[in-house]
């Protein structure tokens, strides 16, 4: 059986990727960051954000 290739997404969760690790889960788009929540926890202090435990 032949399969069609997946279509290119124009909007939705499948389009937004983390700049640092490439995941689609938990991406923060605010202020144009485009970084996932895990990466924000690691690099947040360098960007000027305060990380609370």
Automatic annotation (TrEMBL):
<dbReference type="GO" id="GO:0022627">
    <property type="term" value="C:cytosolic small ribosomal subunit"/>
</dbReference>
<dbReference type="InterPro" id="IPR018271">
    <property type="entry name" value="Ribosomal_uS14_CS"/>
</dbReference>
<keyword id="KW-0687">Ribonucleoprotein</keyword>
<protein>
    <submittedName>
        <fullName>30S ribosomal protein S14</fullName>
    </submittedName>
</protein>
<dbReference type="Pfam" id="PF00253">
    <property type="entry name" value="Ribosomal_S14"/>
</dbReference>
<keyword id="KW-0862">Zinc</keyword>
<dbReference type="InterPro" id="IPR001209">
    <property type="entry name" value="Ribosomal_uS14"/>
</dbReference>
<dbReference type="InterPro" id="IPR043140">
    <property type="entry name" value="Ribosomal_uS14_sf"/>
</dbReference>
<dbReference type="InterPro" id="IPR039744">
    <property type="entry name" value="RIbosomal_uS14_euk_arc"/>
</dbReference>
<dbReference type="GO" id="GO:0008270">
    <property type="term" value="F:zinc ion binding"/>
</dbReference>
<dbReference type="GO" id="GO:0003735">
    <property type="term" value="F:structural constituent of ribosome"/>
</dbReference>
<keyword id="KW-0689">Ribosomal protein</keyword>
<dbReference type="GO" id="GO:0002181">
    <property type="term" value="P:cytoplasmic translation"/>
</dbReference>
